[in-house]
Write a structure and sequence with these properties.
mainly alpha; about 170 residues; about 65% helix; globular; single chain
């Protein structure tokens, strides 16, 4: 995470606009928001007595939903920094939250889907996010603001993807 101390230019009123500041603040906010989201999920799991899964695992179950996906598809669709996705999936299979079966189209991979226990967690997180959406619609955050934010974040994602691919080749 970036240091939250003021940059040297912040103290110098004559320095003018620092283009690095909004970028650094965006990086800081993205990390803090993800951590805060996991804390909110943790609180919700605790309220429902569902402490068998971590917030990261619960978010993963929510994102899988009713689909049947490979591990690589799951990884590419989610934000699982700080975790080993194979380990996490293995733990969820062990705990009977996920099932896996061989992928008939590609024998090297497994298809992963939710069990009934996994769907319970998914439903709890879906209800949490629906409540959040209702609260936002009630005046805290307009859905148009969220759409604009999502568009901006998609642009940032494209920028970083292009940079990543450029650096690799």
């Amino acid at each position: 995470m970036l240091d939250r101390a003021p940059m040297a230019m912040d103290c110098d009123e004559d320095a003018g606009f620092d283009p690095l500041r909004p970028y650094a603040e965006t990086l800081d906010l993205l990390e803090r928001l993800h951590r805060l989201c996991l804390e909110v999920i943790k609180d919700e799991l605790r309220q429902h007595g569902l402490m068998e899964v971590t917030p990261v695992q619960a978010l993963l179950l929510f994102r899988i939903g009713d689909r049947e996906l490979t591990a690589s598809e799951i990884t590419s669709r989610g934000c699982y920094h700080g975790t080993n996705i194979s380990y996490t999936l293995g733990k969820l299979v062990e705990g009977d939250f996920l099932r896996q079966r061989p992928n008939t189209a590609d024998g090297r991979s497994m298809l992963i889907s939710l069990t009934d226990r996994g769907r319970i967690i998914r439903d709890v997180i879906a209800a949490l996010f629906e409540r959040h959406t209702d609260e936002m619609d009630a005046g805290r955050l307009d859905h148009r603001q969220l759409e604009a934010l999502a568009g901006t974040l998609r642009s940032l994602e494209r920028f970083w993807t292009e940079r990543h691919l450029h650096e690799r080749w």
